[in-house]
Amino acid sequence: MVVLGIVGSMRKNRCTNTLVNEVITALKERNPRATEKIIHTADMGIQPCRVICSSYCIQHPYCCSIDDEMADVLASMTEADALVIGTPLYFRAPPAQFQAFAERLISMFFFQESKGSGNSRSPLTGKPCGLIGVAEYSNPQRILEYLHDFCTVLGMHPVLLERFPYLGVAAQGEIEMDTTFQPLERAKDLAAAISASL
Length: 198
Ligand SMILES: Cc1cc2nc3c(=O)[nH]c(=O)nc-3n(C[C@H](O)[C@H](O)[C@H](O)COP(=O)(O)O)c2cc1C
Hints:
The chain has 198 residues and is an alpha/beta fold. The chain has helices at 15-30, 54-59, 70-79, 96-115, 141-153, 183-197, and strands spanning 2-7, 35-40, 82-88, 128-135, 157-158, 169-172. Strands 1, 2, 3, 4, 5 and 6 form a six-stranded parallel beta sheet that branches. Helix 1 crosses helix 6 (183-197). The longest helix has 20 residues, at 96-115. The structure holds flavin mononucleotide. Flavin mononucleotide binds at residues 9, 11, 14-16, 88-92, 134-138.
């Protein structure tokens, strides 16, 4: 089993990365033969969607005419058995590099599914995906809602928790001190839920 972690933070060793790795570590405890791969969107030179080339997306299912690392990222997502995606809130939205990543995928899927031949199937259909949202003074729930929508548009299967905040792991402020969202405990719950969905 391959688990792909996608970290949307610009700070590669801070809260978002910690929580993505907490979930993956707990998943590996349940599935000792699992291997992991981590993608930091901060390391990628992913460009925003140019939109004017949408005819390319329509004629080439789930492909993009921009020659950057996005095709490799989509290939890694397709190969993974499960994904763990986390992003923080920076200046009231996910970091721009993460938004470029999400925008490029959503545009490929949107143009194919709204105007394509209808014969192609999403390479990510049903892929279990655990979600993590991190903020400080804002409510991290809004990031989970953003990520849930992102996964839904891509045809993935966002894995829910049976406990608050339900859509995934949320953290507000210092993760060890967060008694409201209890991110470290919920990370274990999310790993269990992903494992059960495989
Ligand atoms: C540049 C920057 C902008 C931020 N903007 C917000 C914000 O708009 N709302 C919020 O709740 N927290 C904001 N924060 C706090 C971060 O969400 C919080 O520090 C979080 O832990 C960042 O994730 P990271 O540790 O993975 O980088 C901001 C932090 C930084 C560094």
